[in-house]
Design brief:
Distance between the termini: 34 Å
CATH topology of the largest domain: Rossmann fold
Structural class: alpha/beta
CATH architecture of the largest domain: 3-Layer(aba) Sandwich
Number of helices: 8
Helix content: 40-55%
Radius of gyration: 18 Å
Number of strands: 12
Strand content: 15-25%
Largest sheet: 5 strands, parallel
Shape: globular
Length: 246
């Protein structure tokens, strides 16, 4: 994903008025946009062409958004997914994030918010890509794109994490959060800083989201969650990844 070429976005949305409105605003913002109006044709398009982002409705004829998300995440190439849902239950949003969606918007939403979320996703992805080439403190000099800390190994380009040789199953946001920490070992982050850096705009007041993701991430990477080795709490401030010389 580079900044000097137009980014390609696929919209999979069966409500044609919403799809056309989203397409119009994304095109005006300089993106190249394709549209599909049902799940099966949307999945076919997503698999036949390289996209930087897929705007994916949850409720679709043919295949629903959750199934499409599941199938896309089984592919070797990673694509950003912004899920749209008109459902009011938190369970549907959680399922989407668990299956690998990078973010979600609940209908009805403003085009300003949609564009802000899209830009935040691209900004986060670009920062991660630049981190592969930068002098990341947590990255070993002789292994570009690989961060090692104890038994934990993060392969940034593949978005793959393993612990003691065992590959871990992380959601998109869990990986982004871990990467943010591991690239700056010893740096203390407040919940607000993590919300801004990992989730982007529009999440003010959702500090509990950080807490829940930290707890779930610890459950996957820590041998003893009561005495974490990697994701450490700095009481009264926030969290940090263990120092590089630990």
């Amino acid at each position: 994903m580079t900044t000097d070429t137009p980014r390609h976005i696929l919209i999979i949305e069966d409500a044609r008025d919403i799809a056309e409105l989203v397409q119009l605003h994304l095109c005006d913002a300089g993106y190249q946009v394709d549209v599909a109006h049902d799940g099966r044709s949307g999945l076919d398009k997503a698999l036949s062409k390289t996209y930087d982002l897929i705007v994916l409705d949850l409720m679709l004829p043919g295949l629903d958004g959750l199934e499409i998300c599941r199938r896309l995440r089984s592919q070797p190439e990673y694509v950003l997914i912004l899920m749209l849902t008109s459902k009011g239950t938190e369970l549907d949003r959680v399922l989407g994030l668990e299956l690998g969606a990078d973010d979600y918007l609940t209908k009805p939403f403003s085009m300003h918010e949609l564009l802000a979320r899209v830009k935040a996703l691209f900004r986060c992805a670009q920062a991660m890509q630049n981190g592969d080439k930068a002098d990341c403190p947590g990255q070993e000099k002789n292994e570009p794109g690989i961060i090692r800390s104890g038994e934990l190994v993060i392969e940034t380009a593949k978005r793959k994490v393993s612990l003691a040789g065992r590959v871990l199953s992380l959601t998109a946001k869990e990986f982004d959060l871990l990467y943010q920490f591991a690239c700056h070992p010893g740096r203390v982050y407040t919940r607000t800083q993590l919300l801004d850096g990992v989730w982007g705009l529009g999440y003010e007041g959702y500090e509990h989201t950080v807490n829940s993701h930290i707890n779930r991430l610890r459950a996957k990477i820590e041998k003893d969650t009561a005495h974490p080795c990697y994701l450490q709490t700095v009481w009264g401030v926030g969290y940090k990844f263990r120092d590089s010389d630990s």
